[in-house]
Amino acid sequence: MLLEAVLVSKATFLSSPRTSPSSRRRIRSPRDAFVLLEKTGLALMFPIFHWRYSKPDKHDMYNILRRKFDPSASDPAIDVCRRRQESVRRRVIAQNGLVPGLLLGVSLPWWSLRRYNYQSKLIVLPFCAYLGAICGRIAGHGLSWRWVETDRQRMLGNLPAKVYYRPKTTASPPPAAATEGEEE
């Protein structure tokens, strides 16, 4: 019998004892205006169907973002956790550009083609929506300065919060040799 389970990943396990449950980030001053962008970015994310838990979904990103680490700590593990949190924060803020860009990419051609029949709209709208989503994502990356990230930081931000565990099974015994009675 195969035992399959979803477990906490190493990155989540690393960051758990480094924070206390009472220390969470909240909106307190105008400096924390990006927290509002984080909330809207998480709200605008589409759900993910997980086959193997290879990416964090919006609930995992929320749990990563709500942790608060000690800024004066010199532990390398806390530095990795802070860099992961910063990468997730940039990814979530960049999400704010996708949906408005998509809606703008659909609504402007829809208004421009209001006097045409629906066949011409059906041909043009998917291409304009895709182009609007790309432009919105570029604007979101500009809003969050995501292009400044290194590949290492982006990789840390894409680490899953859960892993799919399936133990390796032992090799099955070879089939028994056929007896003489079965051959006849």
Explain the overall architecture.
The chain has one domain. Helix content is 53%, strand content 4%. It has eight helices and two strands; from the N terminus they run βαααααααβα. The protein has helices spanning 10-15, 33-43, 58-65, 76-94, 98-112, 118-144, 151-157, 180-183; strands at 5-8, 162-165. α2 crosses α4. The protein is flat, with a radius of gyration of 24 Å. The chain starts with a strand and ends with a helix. The mean pLDDT is 78.
Quick rundown:
The protein has 184 residues and is mostly helical. Helices cover 53% and strands 4% of the residues.
Structural topology:
Layout: E1 5-8, H1 10-15, H2 33-43, H3 58-65, H4 76-94, H5 98-112, H6 118-144, H7 151-157, E2 162-165, H8 180-183
Helix pairs in contact: 2-4, 4-6, 4-7, 5-6
Transmembrane segments: 92-111, 123-145
Keywords: Membrane, Transmembrane, Transmembrane helix
Record keyword descriptors for this entry.
mainly alpha, 184 residues, single chain, 2 strands, two-stranded antiparallel sheet
Q: What would the average pLDDT be, to the nearest integer? A: 78
What's the helix count? 8
Number of strands: 2
Which structural class fits the helix and strand makeup?
A: mainly alpha
Helix and strand sequence: EHHHHHHHEH
Largest sheet: 2 strands, antiparallel
Compute the number of structural domains.
1
Gross morphology is: flat
Give the strand order, joined by hyphens, for the main sheet.
Answer: 1-2
Q: Beta-strand percentage?
A: under 5%
What is the rounded Rg?
24 Å
**Could you tell me how far the N terminus lies from the C terminus, measured between alpha carbons in angstroms?**
35 Å
Helix content: 40-55%
Q: What kind of assembly state do the chains in view correspond to?
A: single chain
User: Residue ranges: pLDDT <50 for 5 or more in a row?
Assistant: none
